[in-house]
Design a protein that fits this description.
By secondary structure, the chain is α+β, with helices and mostly antiparallel strands. It contains 38 helices and 31 strands. Residues 37-555 form the CNH domain.
């Protein structure tokens, strides 16, 4: 049988909490040359083997081989589930009992298969009632001579946990045997299957068709009733009927013996559990009991014993027993009255003292066998052993059809008195005949006989769950009873009467419901021990033969691949936009083709699930698999992509509830990891869509919670960015492309298709949308450097680019919110300062937004000095400029002086000097500059490329740095500029001449000419240059005067102040004073000239040190004052000079110079001062002379004293007279 790929019909399972239907085998080839249209009637599975019972009365052994991956890439790029390959092992046709043609309308089929793996045996039950045995795993016949007839059902003990755990292990040690309970047409038998088959017990209870066993207690069912059966003590308690109706209830109540309690019924026993509903459909509860099963054991029965370990003795009565009430155990015969086995198994005759056992009376307590002391007689010893352990299924596998035509119903044990040779019980234990007659009198006959299949399962170790109903399409009711027959908890309601019940782990109850009027076959699923309001439905894909559906809890788990897991968790590529050239796209496509095969294989690996619950119909087999958490949680997420704000809070709460359910979960497996990641990422996308659609109506806490979920979900931010067409182009796929879960891509595609907040262009995006995106991307950016971020390079290239674009949009005039704009402006610069991974793209974005100054910040963060200067130059040269680049030239100067690259500084320094000389020259002159420049080199460069800056730099050298060697150059430059202006500008000449006239016209006292021109120059550049030139001329710096004088002489009538300084430098004081007094009329400057020399015209420094020089100059000045044309001015200035500075003048010289016509009163003050000065000088001379005499006397006296101290000397020769010897002292 070749492997086939599951088609679309099977890939979409019906999900219900918490199960999903998965195909296991599709169209198994069961037909043979003799039989056509063969269908499945029962299924078992163990250790990779399928044992299939068919409608052709065959058991087909099939070995499953897992599918092998297809070589090469997957061209469809879709997740598909491949079914395993099935190879037929054996095909057995068990023997069938002969059924008269008049009693059979259908062909025999395999009704049930029971595997005892640890015994290496399989039991096969035919619809004809014949039970045969086979060996595992090859399924060959075993004990061909052993065949048990008239069997309706077989079941294991559900409390036999040891066998249940070991039964699936092929290598487990073989146990002594496993007990199997057989329901027969005439009796109930217990056999032990081990090395051989032995009959353990036989109890006469005809008509049983279904059962479940828990230790010594079994719940059995006939076609009409349920009952509890004590296997060890052969006791029975009647339970409610299968068909619950008024007629059947009355029939059930009248069919049993009613004790005295019937007349005065006591209240019904309270439920041991909390009651959930009353008895349905108005039916009566089971009859009241006066004693429980435990009391029946202790009071009505005594222990039995056996004569030998190989013989099972029949019980021996000790005395007559009282007839039990309805609630007590009824005695049933452990074997037929004739003492012959009815099952074909060898037994020994059971007798006590040669008498037959009393089947109605309890045996003596000393003869009641215990569970450990029971032993069957030796029987057939077949060969063949099994090693695997068995399990105890909780339900049977009898299919709904095909079924044999049922015979007339066997009488109920309650209606059929057991045949026995035991004496009748005492009369005091029998019910009142009158009461019995009354009971029979009220027994009505049903108008229409309804047949329902019984259901019995064991939800706990001490409880049975049975079902009752009124019809196949009517609601059914489940009743819990304990081993005493008491109702223990509330009832369970079914939508329709269940054809089969199955109990899975964790309390999940699966009910195969009858086909209703809607022609739907489905499984209803809920937890029997919890709230039954939340129920799930799995609808079976049955197209034909809907009655032939079966369900079974098989021996071992079977592996499935759940398609919906793979379809959600498989990684697929998202293509947000075409990037790069054709070759780039082709490379991505090739990579996608090669990776898709890996992703499909990975998805198949994590899509695996195991289940032991199989369903079948026709030739198909499904598995009912526990729905993985990802499917349940995904099904709870609201998939509303309409963008409607109505109901947004409810949808957000639904998503939050799902996230809360997975909160704190730590992945334990690979699939668990992907499940959690998928749910969190999808939840984040759904919440993002809701947030963008309803951000204005949501409170701040909800918005923050949604943003936190979106971030913590771990969804690749490129997927979120790709949702916005305005930013799609920023998504960087890298060499491998952008890969996400397939379920996430479905949400992505759905969000793109709707007309919503995502579809707007960048300029049209709302501020609220941009703020959400900004916070999300900023939070993601904080993860930079984390090793857990996949495709870290591509992710942060995208994040940085989009975050930059969003902040630029928020920091634009389009943003009306001032607070948002201010905060975004600050964040924008912080982002650029921190360094952007998308450096090249960031340049393009900033250029597109014309944010040149911010672009220069980006260059600075990357230490791109040249690019920074280029950008600043663009800003300064552009007409619009940049409002952010305040004091741009000054900042450029500061940036240049901190650089070390000489060529770069020279290039941009010269440009800046030509643009703004006052700032530009300082690039070369600032002492903080990293590069030290030679002044001559700078002067040569600036003279050629930035003449104005050349002057500034030269002034800086002379005035600020006091480098006098460049003063000549500066003066020459000043003079050339002044003369050039005078020569070419008549207005300047006129203004200059007018200034002289105005100054001369001023009446005394008046300011000096320097102060006058400073006050009246009004910032004129020519006058400023002249002032600088005058300062430089008056400086003590030495320079060649003659070249300057030659240039000035043609303009000597206009450059009067300059000639004064030059004449002073050449000591031509008379000419200088003459100009000051006669041409300029600046008398105060003339006085200063006499006091301080030629430089005093614009300086206050004392350059003349002696009074004699000053006296000579004042003498010259007196002559000029006396020579003034205006006699009044002459007298006034002369008298002022004599009064202030008369001490510097000789009286005789003054008297000789003053005209004789002047009255004495004009010079009286001078004469008085002079005479006083002369007297003062005379007195000072006398005092000095006297002081000199006293000093002379003192020196003479000192000499005499010294001579006396030295004493006389003797001179031997002329030479000694001049050099006295030392000895003479």
């Amino acid at each position: 049988m070749s492997s086939t790929t599951q088609d679309a019909h099977h890939q979409r399972p019906a999900v219900a909490a918490p199960y999903t239907l998965q195909i296991l085998a599709d169209s198994l080839p069961l037909d043979s040359s003799e039989e056509k249209d063969v269908k499945i009637t029962c299924v078992e599975a163990w250790d990779g083997n399928l044992y299939i019972g068919t409608s052709s009365h065959e058991v087909v052994h099939i070995v499953a081989i897992p599918p092998t991956p297809h070589p090469g890439p997957n061209t469809s790029n879709e997740f598909t589930v491949e079914l395993p390959t099935y190879i037929q092992g054996t095909r057995q046709k068990p023997a069938a009992s002969a059924v008269p043609a008049s009693q059979s309308t259908t062909k025999p089929f395999i009704k049930q298969i029971l595997l005892l793996a640890n015994q290496g045996r399989a039991l096969v039950l035919s619809s004809t009632g014949l039970l045969t045995f086979y060996s595992l795993p090859e399924f060959s016949p075993a004990w061909e001579t052993v065949k048990v007839k008239d069997i309706q059902f077989m079941v294991l003990d559900s409390n036999d946990y040891k066998n249940q755990e070991a039964d699936n292990d092929r290598n487990a040690p073989q146990t002594e045997g496993v007990q199997v309970l057989l329901c027969g047409k005439k009796n109930v038998r217990v056999i032990k299957v081990g090395e051989d088959v032995r009959l353990i017990r036989r109890i006469d209870l005809p008509g049983t068709i279904h059962a479940a066993r828990q230790g010594p207690i079994s719940c059995v069912a006939t076609e009409t009733d349920y009952a509890l059966l004590d296997i060890e003590n052969s006791g029975k308690i009647s339970l409610p009927s299968i068909v619950s109706s008024s007629e059947s209830s009355e029939l059930s109540n009248a069919s049993v013996e009613i004790p005295d309690e019937r007349r005065n019924p006591s209240p019904a026993p309270s439920s041991k559990g909390s009651s959930r509903s009353s008895t349905p459909m108005g039916t009566k509860s089971h009859p009241p009991r006066t004693s429980s099963l435990q009391r029946a054991r202790s009071n009505d029965f005594s222990p039995r014993s056996t004569n030998s370990k190989d013989e099972l003795k029949a019980p021996t009565p000790s005395k007559h027993a009282r007839a039990v009430s309805t609630g007590s155990m009824r005695g049933v015969s452990p074997h037929p009255a004739n003492g012959k086995p009815a099952d074909g198994l060898p037994t020994r005759s059971r007798s006590t003292n040669g008498r037959s056992a009393d089947l109605l009376s309890p045996p003596p307590s000393s003869q009641m066998p215990s569970t450990d002391s029971r032993s069957s007689s030796p029987g057939i010893k077949p060969t063949g052993d099994g090693e695997a352990e068995g399990e105890t299924p909780t339900s049977h596998d009898e299919p709904l059809a095909p079924s044999t035509t049922s015979k007339s119903p066997s009488p109920s044990p309650a209606n059929t008195p057991p045949k026995s040779e035991t004496p009748p019980p005492p009369t005091d234990s029998l019910p009142d005949p009158t009461e019995k007659s009354e009971a029979v009198a009220v027994k009505p006959k049903p108008k229409e006989k309804v047949r329902l299949k019984p259901n019995i399962i064991t939800p706990t170790a001490t409880e049975f769950l049975i079902t009752t109903g009124t019809g196949k399409c009517d609601p059914g009711v489940g009743i819990f009873v304990d081993i005493n027959g008491d109702v223990t908890r509330g009832t369970i309601n079914f939508e329709r009467y269940p054809e089969r019940l199955l109990l899975d782990s964790d309390g999940w109850l699966l009910s195969l419901l009858s086909q209703g009027p809607d022609n739907r076959t489905m499984i209803e699923i809920f937890k029997w021990d919890e709230d039954q309001e939340e129920r799930g439905i799995v609808e079976l894909p049955v197209e034909e033969d809907q009655a032939g559906v079966g369900i079974k809890d098989v021996k071992s788990e079977i592996s499935f691949s759940v398609a919906d897991i793979g379809k959600r968790l498989m990684f697929v590529r998202i293509i947000p936009t075409a990037q790069g050239g054709e070759q780039t796209q082709r490379n991505l496509e090739l990579w996608e083709e090669s990776r898709m095969d890996e992703e499909i294989q990975a998805a198949r690996r994590i899509s695996g699930a195991e289940s032991r619950i199989l369903l079948w119909n026709s030739t198909k087999i499904w598995g009912l698999v526990r729905s993985p958490p990802v499917l349940n949680l995904d099904g709870r997420l609201p998939m509303d992509f309409s963008g409607n704000a109505v109901g947004a809070k409810a949808r957000i709460q639904a998503v939050m509830k799902v996230l809360k359910d997975v909160e704190g979960h730590q992945p334990e497996t690979e699939r668990h990891f992907h499940e959690l990641a998928y749910i969190r990422q999808k939840s984040g996308m759904l919440l993002l869509a809701e947030l963008l659609a309803s951000s204005h109506s949501l409170d701040t806490g909800t918005v923050a919670a949604v943003e936190s979920v979106l971030l913590e979900g771990g969804l690749d931010p490129r997927v979120v960015v790709a949702l916005f067409p305005a930013f799609k182009k920023e998504v960087v796929e890298g060499k491998q492309g952008l890969w996400v879960y397939a379920g996430i891509k479905q949400v992505y595609d759905a969000l793109l298709e709707r007309d919503n907040k995502f579809s707007a262009e960048e300029a049209d995006l709302e501020t609220a949308t941009l703020m959400i995106l900004k916070r999300y991307l900023a939070a993601w950016r904080s993860k930079k450097g984390f090793g857990s971020v996949l495709d870290e390079k591509e992710v942060f290239l995208t994040v940085d680019a989009v975050l930059l674009s969003v902040l630029l949009r928020l920091d634009s005039p389009m943003t009306t919110d001032a607070m948002v704009k201010a905060s975004s402006h600050e964040e924008l610069y912080k982002l650029v300062d921190s360094g952007l991974d998308c450096y090249e793209r960031a340049i393009e974005i900033l250029e597109e937004h014309n944010r040149l100054y911010l672009l220069s910040w980006l260059y600075q963060s990357k230490k791109k000095v040249t690019e920074v200067l280029q950008t600043w130059r663009r800003i300064l040269e552009s007409e619009e400029g940049d409002d952010e680049f305040v004091d741009g030239e000054e900042r450029m100067k500061e940036y240049l002086i901190a650089r070390r690259t000489k060529e770069l500084v020279l290039d941009y320094g010269v440009w800046l000097a030509s643009r703004n000389p006052d700032i530009g020259f300082r690039v070369f002159a600032d002492p903080r500059a990293r590069i030290k420049w030679e002044p001559r080199e700078v002067l040569d460069i600036l003279r050629e490329k930035a003449p104005t800056a050349y002057r500034k730099y030269l002034e800086h050298l002379v005035h600020d740095n006091k480098i006098v060697e460049y003063a000549k150059d500066l003066m020459s430059m000043y003079l050339d500029e002044l003369l050039s202006t005078l020569e070419n500008d008549q207005d300047t000449r006129d203004v200059l001449e007018a200034s002289y006239l105005s100054y001369r016209a001023l009446e005394a006292p008046k300011p000096t000419y320097r102060v006058f021109i400073e006050d009246n120059s009004s910032g004129n550049r020519w006058w400023a240059t002249r002032l600088r030139f005058l300062d430089l001329l008056a400086d003590e710096t030495s320079y060649e005067v003659e070249p300057l004088l030659q240039k000035i002489r043609p303009w000597q009538k206009l450059l009067v102040a300059e000639l004064v300084i030059i004449y002073g430098k050449e000591s031509r004081h008379s000419e200088a004073l003459k100009i000051l007094c006669h041409e300029l009329g600046d008398f105060d400057t003339a006085v200063n000239y006499c006091l301080f020399g030629a430089v005093s015209i614009f300086k206050t420094e004392r350059t003349i040190k002696t009074k004699e020089e000053q006296s000579e100059l004042f003498k010259l000045l007196l002559s000029e004052f006396l020579a003034l044309e205006d006699a009044e001015v002459s007298v006034k200035q002369t008298c002022s000079l004599l009064q202030r500075f008369g001490s510097w003048l000789n009286v005789e010289d003054v008297l000789d110079a003053i005209p004789e016509s002047w009255p004495v009163c004009l010079v009286s003050a001078f004469l008085t001062t002079s005479l006083r000065y002369l007297i003062k000088e005379k007195n000072e001379a006398n005092i000095a002379k006297a002081l000199s005499r006293s000093i002379n006397l003192r020196v003479t006296a000192d000499y005499v004293d010294k001579c006396d101290q030295l004493g006389p000397t003797i001179q031997d020769s002329e030479h000694d007279a001049f050099f006295p010897s030392l000895d003479s002292k």
